[in-house]
Amino acid sequence: MGLLNREEAEALIQEVLEVYPEKAKKDRAKHLMVNDKKLESAKKCITSNRKSVPGVMTQRGCAYAGAKGVVWGPFKDIIDISHGPIGCGQYSRGGRRNYYSGIAGVDSFCDLMFSSDFQEKDIVFGGDKKLAKLIDEVESLFPLSKAISVQSECPIGLIGDDIEAVSKKKAAEIGKTIVPVRCEGFRGVSQSLGHHISNDAIRDWVISNRDGKLDAGTPYDVAILGDYNIGGDAWASRILLEEMGLNVVAQWSGDGTIAEIENTPKAKLNLLHCYRSMNYIARHMEEKYGIPWLEYNFFGPTKIAESLREIASHFDDTIKEGAERVIAKYQPAMDAIIAKFKPRLQGKKVMLYVGGLRPRHTVGAYEDLGMEVVGAGYEFAHNDDYDRTIKELKDATLIYDDATGYELEEFVRQVKPDLVGSGIKEKYAFHKMGVPFRQMHSWDYSGPYHGYDGFAVFARDMDMTVNNPCWSMFKAPWQKPAEEPEAKAA
Amino acid sequence: MQTVENIKPCFPLFNEDEYQAVLEKKRTYEERVSPEKAAEVFEWTTTKEYQDLNFARQALTINAAKACQPLGGALCGLGFEKTMVYIHGSQGCVAYFRTYFNRHFKEPIAFIADSMTEDAAVFGGQKNVHEGLQNATKLYDAKMIAVCTTCIAEVIGDDLGAFIGNARKEGYVDKDFPIPYANTPSFVGSHITGWDNMFEGIMRYFTLNEMEGKAPGQNGKINIVPGFETYLGNYRVIKRYMKEMGVDYTYLCDPDEVLDTPATGEYEMYAGGTTIEEVKDAPNAITTFMLQSTTLEKTKKYIEGTWNHEIPKLSIPMGVEWTDEFLLKVSEATGKAIPASITKERGRLIDMMTDSHQWLHGKKMAVFGDPDFVMGLVKFMLELGIEPTHIVCNNSNKRWEKAMKKMLEDSPYGIHAKLYPGCDLWHLRSLCFTDKPDFIVGSSYGKFIQRDTLYKGPEFEVPLIRLGFPIFDRHHLHRMTTLGYEGGMYILTTLTNAVLERLDDQTKMLGKTDYNFDLVR
Description:
The structure holds 2 protein chains of 2 kinds. By secondary structure, chain A is of the alpha/beta class.
């Protein structure tokens, strides 16, 4: 089956909803839509950023995951304390592949886990004293760390601990920035509020640290916001910006440092890749420091070239020429990649269910390879994400918000895409179903996917998964239906 | 820059000069300390002085080797037929549990949450339980919903039993739909404790008020309780032994099918598992064998107290002697003889031990992991002539400590061993610098110690041998076996070949260390 038409897509949504009890059905119906490019705003067609339905298999995480896991974890010289019971720190260790350059345990701390390992007595008597002691221990064992963040797990907000007071007091004592982050897992409805809380914490506790003390920088200073350097994405992006003549003074947060955060107000333009997780701080810097910000897309040569030109349009001719030079430099390599992989991937259908930006941002990269996105959805998007998404997708594409495991499986069963791009929780169910699958959070342990160099890896990876022989071996010879050989013969 | 003939992923892409230059330039914005200063501090972290500071920690855990209760509760629920694991609390926890098992087993993992948010934190989670159970029973075609909790529900003091009772009364779920539950607070114990609690909850639910007419020995079977067990082969080897002995048994908690479904073109959410009927009949068994006896305290108490079983005093059946003891006890309890096939298997393991002893004798190995696993592993090491050195158990208990101490004192090979109960992997990192073992044996988390020790210099490197949970960075090792003689064979093969790989690594320099780079070993 190919792409559904509008009626078919709508009928499919109705069919999938049938299984739910009345209340859940009503709720879930609001989160599923069929794309209509004519719409100015997604508001009337889809509801997002609402509570997940209890007892239904949401794929979402929590505010802590959005804060510690996404925003804070990748800053390399900040020690993030998972404050509360042991689990959260353990589960969020090392899974996201935020690469950094540094000496782990000495000047970089991304792949260590720090926990206050709450016991019953900490719940009963409060954890503030433990936190204060723990900060001293961090300081004595890791003298080269530049800052500490306190990542609250669920109990902290429930037992009335005052981590702000502890942070202030200890910061004064040790002379380093300590940021209390109120990202308890029960706050909000998904990872998304954790991003927002983290942005606000950076606003309140970090960004203005050097106000009045910063030099003017150069006219070409920019900052990358919302690139977590997964598989080295930010490095494969940075190289292009520098080649066109810009100075990337800060990376948020992949391979970033606290000094880079503090120096960001020097930037002349903030470049925002993951809008969802960092638009808040971009808006704040625009308001407070007058720094404009620009969303860009470094997936696939078409979008990269568009973005490079748009970025350059904010600068003088040297940068504009730089952008053209960069585009021209990489064009032959990109042409060769497309010449090799497009014939192998042309016409293949993709369904995506990911996080912050990828369900819309990777569409262009798939299209560069001749592939078509026939379904897309987000775990934790807001309506402004869907506004941006409907423009990127074809009419009648399925769009699903906070999709449940069951909905995804049913959509895939009926639409029969050639590739599904989603996360580790979804991956193995689709393997069982014989649907080629790539993890699109962690790049399935590959990457980078950003930038021109990243697109080469992306193309290679999509090809290896779509065209691997394993997908054709699911049935033993004695299991094949009798009519199949005949059909083939005919 | 990429070329179509040679597309490079992160490694080796970022080792190229152009990217090294990018990183070098980035450094100018980072305000990092100088490489010299970093090197100096690194060296300091490898000293005894640093170790003393490190061991003086009272509040901070660094690089834990344990997880929290509901993870264990969830694994336990997976072992029952058509059972949906339902976690009362925040949804993020459930995303983490699923992910953790996805990465270890490379399998789909179906758990659901009732997604408590801020309002539930204030008003309690009863509404979530009601709506959640209603949806879950309608959607997932389960025969049982096994409920455990995250810390939010525990901290606010939700009364799970009452909530479920009210859900029945108010018609959100059928009166008789099986919903066993357990409180699994993350701030008590570890994932091991959570397994124990959930298991006891399930047993209690189906047997506490249905003991009439039940008595030990009536069904002629024995019960097997695995504990938090992640090696699929361990479920299978015990079943094979029972079959070969002709012993009728009930595996109480048996997830080896659901964690290993074939690729057929269809996703099956459920497969295999202990049935409710089997659980209800379990008190009628001759007795119950607990494979991880030091960590199943609550279960033991319940089975002894309610089922009146005399639970055999056994250690985990790892290595030769403890497998012998296990089989003898099974034989004694059931009157079934240990068949020649198992004796032959034992003989094969002993034969392998004679073949490989020269590579293992006197090797110094640090060990970390869950209590019973570490105990069994150390026991087998002592049988192999290996000298365990630093033994780290982040989630140990007093019983474990006492038993370990005795075992080490009783063996001449325990002379170098030191127990580090409650310690974490940053403690172990220090120990690997100041008192270098030949190898570390443990989960994937040990790889960072290998990396850090190598950084000091090749002669300081302590290679990791992957045995335990979780193993995220090697494929399919969870399918292997560590229990029984078969498990001994796998452990022995793994350890021996790690020693030989290491020797090859150290002797493969052409024209320099060719001696001892042997074809025959």
